[in-house]
Specification:
This protein is an alpha/beta fold. It has 13 helices and 13 strands. Helix 2 crosses helix 5 and helix 5 runs antiparallel to helix 6. The N terminus is likely disordered.
Length: 338
C-alpha cells in the first residue's frame, strides 16, 4: 500500500519533539514538547507609550519600538511573518542542523547566520549587529534571555508553549510592531480559511483520530501535549488525539511507544517523522508497521525534515504549505471512511 511521502528536506531551526536520537539532537528537538497549560491569550502585543508596542511573552512583558530600524530574529515564526508583511528581518539566525530555507520561505532576510543546534546564538555577534529588537523564540532560561535583553528589547516565545512561538500570535505581534495590524489579521484569516477549506473538502478529518511522532533507531515516540504545535495543527483540522496515547505519557508532553504497544499507532491518520532512518527502511525498523491500519489505508504520512518542521515549528507560511503536502493523505482518509 502506498505511503505518502514528501521530497528530501532542508530546514531551519528545530523546535520539534524531545526524543532520544542522540543527546545533542534530542536536546535540540525538545522545543516542541512542552505543555504548560497556559492560555495563548495571555501573550499579546498592546500599545504602550508613544512609539512603542508592549509585547507579553514567556519571559515577561517588553516594550519594543514601533517599526524598528534593525530586526534580528532567531524565531522561524517571526522571520516568516516579517517577510510575509513585506519587511524582512535584517539578520536571521538558524541552526546548522536546519540551515537552509524551507520551501515555503521567501529567503529574503538581509543576512543569515548559522549557529550550533546545541546552543544559542553568540551574544557578542548578536550585539555586533546593533539590533533595535530581537525576536528570540525559545530560550533555555532567564539568564540567557537577560543577556540578549541587555543588547536590545528581546521577545521570547509568544503563545501557549514556552518552547515554540504560536504562529497566529507571532503574526499578530509582528503586525502591531510594524503598524500593519490589518494586514496581519488578513494573513491569519487566510491561513485559517485554508484549514477550513481542508476540512470542507475532506469531511473525514472531522473527528478522525491522529498522532504526530518520530521514528528513530532508538524507538518510537509521539507528542501528547494539547498545546504542542504539532497537535494544535492536527486539532485545527478536527483531528482528535486518542486518550490512550495521552495516557501513555509520563510527563504530559510525549509518550515513548514500545514494540508491544505499537497498536497505539492505529489511528485514522498517522504522521511520523523518520530521523536517522530511511523511509524505505521503516517497515523493517518498526515491528508490525505494515499491519497498522493507517499504513494499510494509505493514511500514514512519512515526513521529511521540511514537513516535520513545518508542523512542529509552524509559521504563517509553513502551515499553508503543509496542508498542501498532506492533500493526498487527506484524500486517502476520505476513501478509507467510505
Amino acid at each position: 500500500m502506498r505511503i505518502p511521502t514528501v521530497a528530501a528536506g532542508r530546514r531551519f531551526r528545530t523546535t520539534a519533539l524531545a526524543l532520544t536520537i542522540t543527546t545533542a539532537l534530542a536536546g535540540s528537538l525538545a522545543a516542541c514538547s512542552d505543555d504548560d497549560g497556559s492560555d495563548p491569550s495571555d501573550f499579546s502585543a498592546t500599545a504602550a507609550q508613544s512609539g512603542t508596542v508592549e509585547v507579553t511573552h514567556t519571559m515577561g512583558t517588553t516594550e519594543v519600538p514601533e517599526d524598528p530600524g534593525k530586526i534580528v530574529s532567531f524565531s522561524p515564526s517571526f522571520t516568516d511573518v516579517f517577510s510575509a508583511l513585506g519587511r524582512p528581518v535584517d539578520v536571521e539566525y538558524r541552526t546548522d542542523f536546519y540551515g537552509e530555507p524551507g520551501p515555503w520561505e521567501n529567503g529574503d532576510s538581509g543576512e543569515t547566520v548559522t549557529y550550533s543546534m546545541t546552543g544559542t546564538p553568540d551574544v557578542e555577534k548578536v550585539a555586533e549587529a546593533d539590533p533595535d529588537v530581537i525576536f528570540a523564540g525559545y530560550l533555555p532560561d532567564q539568564a540567557t534571555y537577560d543577556r540578549y535583553n541587555q543588547i536590545a528589547p528581546t521577545i521570547a516565545t509568544v503563545g501557549s508553549s514556552p518552547m515554540s512561538d504560536d504562529w497566529r500570535e507571532a503574526t499578530t505581534v509582528a503586525g502591531d510592531v510594524l503598524g500593519k495590524s490589518d494586514e496581519a489579521t488578513k494573513l491569519v484569516e487566510d491561513a485559517d480559511q485554508a484549514f477550513a477549506d481542508a476540512k470542507e473538502n475532506h469531511p473525514a478529518l472531522d473527528g478522525a483520530t491522529g498522532a504526530f511522532g518520530q521514528i528513530s533507531e532508538q524507538g518510537l515516540a509521539v507528542v501528547t501535549g494539547d498545546s504542542d504545535p504539532a497537535n494544535v495543527f492536527l486539532t485545527d483540522l478536527g483531528i482528535v488525539i486518542p486518550e490512550e496515547i495521552k495516557a501513555a505519557s509520563q510527563d504530559g508532553s510525549r509518550a515513548f511507544i514500545s514494540e508491544e504497544n505499537t497498536d497505539l499507532l492505529n489511528t485514522d491518520l498517522l504522521y511520523m517523522w523518520p530521523v536517522g532512518v530511511e523511509a524505505k527502511d521503516v517497515p523493517t525498523t518498526v515491528k508490525g508497521w505494515d499491519q497498522l491500519t493507517p499504513v494499510k489505508n494509505g493514511t500514514a504520512f512519512l515526513a521529511d525534515t521540511d514537513a516535520a518542521m513545518a508542523i512542529s515549528n509552524p509559521t504563517i507560511l509553513s502551515v499553508v504549505w503543509e496542508l498542501e503536502q498532506l492533500e493526498d493523505t487527506f484524500t486517502a482518509l476520505d476513501d478509507a471512511a467510505e
